[in-house]
Each structure stands twice: as C-alpha cells, then as structure tokens.
Amino acid sequence: MRGVASMSVTTPTGAARRPARLGDAHPLVPYLYILPFALFFLVFVVYPVGFGFYVSLHRFDLLSDTQPFVGLEFYRNLFDMSTPQAQFFWNAMKNTAIFTVISVPLLIATALGLALLLNRPIFGRAFFRAVFFLPGVLTVSVMGILWRWMFDNQIGLVNAIQTELLGGQPIPFLSTENIAWIPIIVGTVWWTIGFNMTLYLAALGNISQSYYEAADIDGATAWPKFRFITWPLLAPVTLFVFVTTVLASFQLFGQSLVITAGGPNRTTQSAILYITEEAFSNNQFSSATAMSFMFGLVMLIFTYLQFRIMARDARGEA
Amino acid sequence: MRKVTLAVTLLGALLSAAEAQAQSSYKGPKVTITYLHGFTGADRPVMEKLVQQFNATHPNIVVRAQGQPWGTTWQQLPSLVASGRAADVVVINEDQITNFVARGAVSPLTDAELKTAGIDKGRFYGPLFKTADYQGKSYGVPISSVAYVMFYNKDLMKKAGLDPNKVPQTRADFLKAAQACTTDKSGKKPDEAGFDAKNLDTWGVSLYNNWVGSRAAYAAILQNGGSLVDKNLNASFNSPQAVEAVQFMVDLVSKYNVARPNSTEEAELAAFSQGKVCFFPSGQWYLDRFEQQKMNFGVAFMPRVGGTKQDAAWGGSSHLTLPKQKANYDKNKRAASLEFINWMTSPAQNLAWTEAGSLPVMPAVAKDKKFEGRPIQGVFEKLGNIYATSGFPWGGQVLGPFDNAWANAYSGKKSVKDALNDGVTEANKQIEQARKSFR
C-alpha cells in the first residue's frame, strides 16, 4: 500500500512516461485492489446465488439426465395454500417471527441489566463476566441437549422443582404448544447473552465519569442518571445490538432442532429448519431453494427497514 | 473397547489363516477399489481391521477405505455419481437406499453377478436383504443391522409376581403383565379404587413421543397386517388395521394407565435404568448401557401387541452398494468390488462385525456359540421378522408425518383416527409432489 502510494508521490511524472508501470493513476489499479475480495465474492456469493436461482426454476436433481424447466412453480407453491409447502413455510415464518419478537427484547434487556451490574466495582467482577460469557462458547448441540434435559416433560430439573417442591403435576414443556417456546427462549438467552453483555460493558466503559459527577452535584438519583445519561449514550450500541440480534434470531435453527425437533406439530419449527427438512429429508432441493430465496427476500426487507431507522437516527444525532 | 479390539484380533488371526486358503472369485489383474462408509464411531476400528484383513488375504485387490459421517455421504453422493467419481463400493442405510435407487444413483446387482461372486441371498434374513430391493431388483447386500427390541427388567417382574423367564407374547398377556407391574405412589393397583394414575411409582411399559417411540406404533401396525404405504407406495397408515393397532398402544396410556403420558425417551430410559418400569421398547443400541450398569435385564422381540397377523418390529440397516459409474468403468473393479462385498458379508466377517454393536445379518452367525447366554440372544429367533421402513423413494415424506401422527395420538391431542388420517393426508400431498421427480 504505502510503497505504491509513495512511489506515485515522488515520481508524479513517472507514470506518464512509463505507462506499463502500475501507478495510482493507472485505470486498472482500483480493480486490482478489489480483485482478491471480488474473487471470493464471486465464487462464494454471486455464483451460488445465481446457481441457486437456476435450481429454483428447474426440477433439479444432479442424478437426473434432464433438469426440466418449471418456471416459477416452486414460488407459486408458496402462495397456494393448498400445498404443504405454503402451509408449512408460512407457519415456520410465523414461528421465526414469534421467536424474534420475544427473544430480542429479552436478549437486549438482560444483557444491558447484567452489563450495568457488572460495570460497578463489585466483588468477583471478572469472574462473573466470565461466567455469563462462557455459555456462548458451547456448540448448539451441547446447549440444546442441556436445556432439553432441564425442561424434560418428566425428569427435568424444572419439573423436579414443580413436583417435589411445589407439589404440582409435571408440565410437559417439550410437547405442549406455546409452552415449548420456553425452553428454546430461555436456553437461547442463557447461551447468547454474553456477547451482547460484552458489547454493552465496552460501551459503558467509554462513558466519561464526569457526566455522572455533574449529575451527582445536581442531586440526580440512579434512575434519572440512567435515563438521561447512560441510555442516550448507549444508543449507538443498542442499535447495533438490536440489528445483529434480530438477524441472529431469524437464523433460529439448532435450538429448535435439538430441543423440540420443531414440535409439537411444527409449532416451534423455524424457517431454516423447515427449509432443511424440505431439502434433506424430503429431497426437494428446488422447492427448498425457492423457499430460501423467499426467506432471503423477507430478510432483505427487514434489513432495509433497519437501515432506514439507522439513517434516521444518525441524522437525529447530528 | 479393549474387549472389542482383543476379540477382533483373536478372530482375525483365526480367520486370516482360514481365509488364505479360501477361493477368491476375482481372478483378474491387480486392481485398487475405493470403499466409502459411515462407520465413524466405536465401530470404526472394527471396520478398519476387517479391511486390513481383506487386503492381507487378497493379493490382487487393494481396498482403500474412507469413513465419513453418513449425512456427508448422502449430500455428496448425487454429485459424485453425476460426475463419475463415486467410490466403487458405498454403504447406504435403509432410510436412504430406496431414494438413491429410484434416482438412479445405485446400479442393480444381477443374479448372475451375485452368483459369480458367491453371494447367496438365502444366507441373509429375508426382509433384511429385501430392504435394498426395488421393483424386483436387488441393489445392496446387508452388512449391519439394528432393531427395535423390548428390554425387560427381571427384578421388577419378579416383584410384580411375574415369571421373568416368560415374557408375554400376546396382547392379552402383555396387558396383564403390564398391569401387574403398575403401582401408584400409595401402593394401589390400576384396578383398585382410588388408584392415582397421575402418580405412578412403577409402571408396565415405556411409551414416548419421539421417532423411536413411534416405532412402537410401527411394530403394532405391521403385526396387525397394516403397513405404512400401499401397493402404489402412497401412505396408508390409517387403514382400519393400523387404527386398531395404534389404538391399543394409546389405550395403554389413557385407558389402562400402564404407561406414562407425555413422556420422553430420556425420561423412560432413566426410569428403566432405575427399575421403575418393566418393559422398555427401544433400539437394541442401549444394550451396552444396561450391560455396563449390571442390570438384571433381558431382551425380547416386540410382543404381538398390535395384532396376531405376524411377528414384526422395526429395524435399521446398512447395505453395501455399487454406485452407478461412467460408461467406460473398469469391469475388473466391479468384479473385485463384488468379491469384497461377498467377503465382508460372509459369516466369519459378520461375526467379527457384531462386536461393533450390530445384530447378525444371517442365521448362521446368530447360531454362534459366542452369543450363548447373552441377553441379546432373546431376539435372535425372530431376526427374520424385522422390517425396515424402506421400499418407497419418499422416506421423509412418509416418516415425518407418521412420527408426528404418533406424537399427536400418544399425547392425546388428537384421537388415534384423526391423528393417523391427518398424517396420511399430509404424507400423500407431499408424495404427490415428490412423484414428479421420479418419471
């Protein structure tokens, strides 16, 4: 980088006299800079997306001699409610939305709460930070099995407390509609809270203590200090956490797969879980690819809306 | 593990001596064949040992084995076959085989070929061999097999006044035994006044909500003369025989109170390990666990709870197949592969393979002295009555809705009839679409 830049600065006329040499002025240079990334982008993003779109328009099977063109049949299926695809896909989309709407506020609020607690000079602060961060290093299968056991219909720890301590009947968490979300959401919060918490801790550390000292002099109590100093100054981080958590929640897959297998009756089946079923259990690759594009489109709309909000907020701050 | 290795080594020493003299069906020039399998757990060293032995006893064939997770193979096989780069021999499981066959990924094994290689269909359990058959042709030779069996707790049976050496065989006997095993927390029996079905201390049989649990319904349906799919390979598990059979399984929970409602496989496994339940139907793969636990238990074939038409239980299996290859594929490789398949599925090798946790795939191996007195021998007599969920190219489309139907019926969310009808409706809608992929 620097070599190229300095060369063009010290010999401004060199490039003109010897056009074969690649100075900054050479029209190819910018393209050479982006070439390494562009190669990866083309091979791992553009080509698969293009190929995927081709697959979604054909009845595609590598083992077949012909790949008949079917046009938008697999997309139309998603809007014809008599097909299982439409029924299960939109049901899975609804489930994914439910999960996102419930888990995102929880993941932000609890992460912020923990960060506020652990930002104070309490005993064992580093230890507790590590404790809350550690679950995040587990794989989803370990985390899933753990929470499936905790909420087992009969022998789970939660039901042991319910029956032995509270004297009630065991609650079949894993096989009751709606309630089956509890193990998935509690497990997800436990699993991913550390990341958001760490982001908040870093942001809290960047807030100058002088604001709080000034507020103390004015006689402010804890709540106004949070409401008028901490919360506004955390806004950029909150926005970032919000956007990344929403996107991560939409990707719900492993937790549903391991804890409830999408059950009971597909009520916890996420979009990606259903797309996987259609592709690898039903061997309907083209149909699954069409669903992926539909899912991607919905994600794109959400991301667009989020960027709009981000842009508005940036203007508001300026 | 050490036990396994030692046994294999001893066996290997014995076998290689005998094998060196055995006639190989392959007389051609020296060839190298590739062999792709999914035995990547505790069974990997056993398989590697067998391949080594084969190479040692077959100077003109070199087998290069590769083990990778099953799922990876299912995803890669289509593109490998399409580009003519598939391994010479690939192991495919019972839940995938018909789909791959119907899509043309696997080549049929002709009678002439089988004969030349010395592979006699008759040496295997009939239904097990037929698992890899499709439209009258054979596509694979069974190498490994697991099954849904019924574990029983001898101590608890004794306590309940039952003869632990006499496992119930019929529906009526089974119900009676299950009732004898069931007691609530205050010591009352199901037929006594004030019996509290919600607080069982011990109970008769483990039923549970996942796919393994649904294999109880599968066994019952087959026993009653029903089936998962009809002649046209459409889902048919809502036939009157199926409804009647599954109804009895559900009645065990809701009517007779001899099984827990809303239970999970983990919960029932724990209960059986703790001696709280007499009969635990599940995969034979739990055998090791109970043996290590030094439980006083036995293994029996699934009793005829569903009906009296036939003995039946679910089984899973792995089959040695020859994928479709390029037009100019070396004939010697195919002949050598068939020799490899024959050797690998011969009694001596299959006996060695059972150390990896497989059931025998042929009666000759089941008769071996090694199994005498072992609990698993309890099912050997009926290994020929084990039926895999294969034979239709749309496995996922049938089994997904079937497992779900069982979960709904078992939990009481739907009546048995509604649960099975809804399952069949869903399955057939999906099959109708899948059919378009198979011309």
Characterise this structure.
Helices cover about 70% and strands about 0% of the residues of chain A. Chain A has about 325 residues and is mostly helical. Chain A has two domains: about 1-55, no CATH class; about 80-315, MetI-like fold (Orthogonal Bundle), CATH 1.10.3720.10. Chain A is flat, with a radius of gyration of 26 Å. Residues about 1-15 of chain A have low confidence and may be disordered. Chain B has about 450 residues and is α/β, with parallel strands linked by helices. Chain B folds into two domains: about 1-145 and about 315-375, 3-Layer(aba) Sandwich (D-Maltodextrin-Binding Protein, domain 2), CATH 3.40.190.10; about 150-315 and about 390-435, D-Maltodextrin-Binding Protein, domain 2 (3-Layer(aba) Sandwich). Chain B is about 45% helix and about 15% strand. In chain B, helix 2 links the parallel strand 1 and strand 2. The interface between A and B is large, with 32 and 40 residues.
Tally of alpha and pi helices of chain A = 14
CATH architecture label name of the largest domain in chain B? 3-Layer(aba) Sandwich
N→C terminal distance of chain A:
33 Å
The mean pLDDT of chain B is 92
Proportion of residues in extended strands of chain B: 15-25%
Order of helices and strands of chain A: HHHHHHHHHHHHHH
**Top CATH class of the largest domain in chain A:** Mainly Alpha
Strand content of chain A: under 5%
Number of helices of chain B: 17
Helix content of chain B: 40-55%
